[in-house]
Amino acid sequence: MTAVGVWCTTALSCTAPAPAGLPPRLPRPELAAEVTAAPAAALATTYRPGCPVAPDRLRLIRMNHWGFDGTLHRGEILVHEDAVGPLLHVFGKAFEAGFPIRRMRPTAEYGGDDRRSMADDNTSAFNCRQVTGDPRRLSRHAYGMAVDINPVENPYVDRHGTAHPAEGEPYLRRDRAEPGMVRPGDAVTRAFEDVGWEWGGLWHPPDYQHFSADGT
Questions:
Q1: Are 92 and 62 in contact (CB under 8 A)?
Q2: Dist CA 50 CA 30 (whole Å)
Q3: 135 in any annotated domain
Q4: Integer Cα distance of 114 and 48 in angstroms
Q5: Which tens digit of pLDDT belongs to each residue from 34-85?
Q6: Is residue 40 one of the residues assigned to a domain?
Q7: Smallest Cα–Cα separation from 154: which of 202, 194, 112, 193?
Q8: Any domain includes 173
Q9: Which of 52, 69, 122, 147 is a plausible cystine mate for 117, CB 3.0–4.6 Å?
Q10: What is the DSSP letter of 82?
Q11: DSSP E strands: which ranges in the chain?
């Protein structure tokens, strides 16, 4: 596949040399990302005729991220081309802060089923679907201009107070810090503020996993 842009240098970047007589310092991991056109596999079951964004305006970002096991993983996320720069900034800041991401896969790997993707704690973006709980409106995910991060640790709360996914129920208590939980003023929310995206965690009821370019 032809790359449309390679961002962020290499996977490892060395720090300054160690003083004489000391062992060399270990390389310091950095975010490394590659941006390509959207492959057919990432569009399967998530794109259909009539979707508000054309396939040629979608981009697949492949990048490394920290996992809950403390090691580096390689993830993939499908986004609108206009979201590439902002999200590389965000995930770069999250990487620097050591923020863990459970997994990052296109929702096509879940048959386009947002419920399955959430239950698997999958961080994702593009999916041509309606707003959860409101079939009259298209979600910003249908434009590739929204991202959901660690849905189990950051559940969507409906107007009845029910957590989605159900596995997120224990994380409705937001008065304690847990790995992968998005919290006000942390590296993730600050990075999204930097690029002008809004957090659903401030809504009533809240959608803790959701960030979007226009606040919807």
A1: no
A2: 39
A3: yes
A4: 16
A5: 999 999 999 999 999 989 999 999 999 999 999 999 999 999 999 999 999 9
A6: yes
A7: 202
A8: yes
A9: 122
A10: G
A11: 3-7, 12-13, 28-29, 33-37, 58-66, 72-80, 103-104, 122-123, 130-131, 134-138, 146-148, 156-157, 163-164, 198-199, 210-212
